[in-house]
Amino acid sequence: MAGDKERSEKDKDGVAAFQAYVSGRGDQNQPQIWSKHKEGETCPVPGLSDTQYRQFVKLFGNQESTAKEDNAPITNMAGNIDKEGKWIIDSGATEHIIYDDLLLKNKRKGNFEPPVTIPNGETIAVEGRGEYVLPNGMLIKEVLHVPNFKCNLLSVSRLAKDLQCAVTFFPDFCVMQDLRSGTLIGVGDCNNGLYKMGMMGSERRAMMTTLDTWHKRLGHPSSSKLSHIDFLKNISVNSKEFCDSCIKAKFSRLPFPVSTNKTNACFDLLHCDVWGKYRTPSFTRANYFLTIVDDLGRAVWVFLIKHKNEASSCLINFHKMIQTQFEKNIKRIQCDNGGEFTSNKMLDFYTKEGIILETTCPHTPQQNGVVERKHRHLLETARALKFEANFPTKFWGECVLTATHVINRLPSDVIENKTPYELLYNEKPDYERMKVFGCLAYYKSTETKGDKFVERGRPGIFLGYPQGPKGIKSMISNKEKS
Ligand SMILES: [Zn+2]
């Protein structure tokens, strides 16, 4: 029975088996450079990189007071209203306290709790307990819900014990680091003598990782591309830091020749091409991939295929998908004269569906420029991902699919620095679950068979994103990248 309950809990989460969180170690593997001793440049705390330290100093240093009442001396935090709803990091508190239980998970209600005593001797009723998820996904357990409290308190002693972390206070900010790995797990800023940590905020999340990590997560794009992503704007993007994988992938760093889109709506015109044959079959035994690019938003779809002629059935299935998911019809398809697009079967399909086929002259790939440029971008990104992850060549398919995922979420100057994703779905992409390709990831094991003492999180290597909004693909291995 316990097993059943567990399974249904996981099903609620969608692709729960793959729901994973990344170890900070995999993401934040910036080497420490201790030889630099320039005043103010080197981080005084082991485990925090110089870049991270400098970013925090820049972001939190010399903050101006914003609220008038902030100037009043604060000695009793329980009586003060913190309108921002931030966590106050309190070394005097013995419990975590929150006043808004909407922010809690797994709530347990009841008046069974002893009341909280505040410094003036008064007691305030506790209405229940729950869990709070930190911006990095870590769980703070046993948070007391006290509705009459006017601020949220994070107890340093509980935090240090429960998360096995060190909390270090600087003049303008404080950091929490995992005791074993030294990885940064939280950061708070100091405002008018109080150390505070924001609730879930994308800016704060971005600060948790360095720009270098985002460069890797997003498939090694140029700094100027990163500067167009809203939550990365506040991080210095004038980084000229050396990226070995970019050099190896022969990134030209030059913008692709700009071509204008000729359509008014998504799926009015699709550009298609097949890439291959590649000499090494992929992990899934593919030798080719079919690329479909939407002319308006430049969104790209890639299908790994074993034989060139599979491209036709892929295209037919794609048309069906568009009709069901987007309630649209493809109006025109542009491709070269390849037999996979011009067979009798395909000509029948175009006629039946009312699609106009536009073919380009043989040996003039520039006529099929949109998809040619997309291939170049896909392959450069895929190569950088492969070099960064240090993967064998047979994983080229996973690299290309991951490149497709990130490119759809990167701003493009052809569409005024919007992302293909937002032109397609009318909403901004969610970067929350993005990880560095090839990093160590943990996935929830479903093989527990109700046994409470079996390991729940098992290590794997992050291999990209499956279709659908949640989850990750991972390769399970007991050894690290073998
Ligand atoms: Zn790079």
UniProtKB/TrEMBL annotation:
Keywords: Hydrolase, Protease. The keyword Protease applies. The keyword Lipid metabolism does not apply. Residues 1-47 are annotated as: Disordered. GO terms for molecular function: nucleic acid binding; peptidase activity. Residues 253-428 form the Integrase catalytic domain. Residues 1-14 have a biased composition (Basic and acidic residues). PROSITE patterns: INTEGRASE. Signal peptide: none annotated. GO terms for biological process: DNA integration; proteolysis. PANTHER family: RNA-DIRECTED DNA POLYMERASE, TRANSPOSASE, PUTATIVE-RELATED. This is Integrase catalytic domain-containing protein. It comes from Deinandra increscens subsp. villosa.
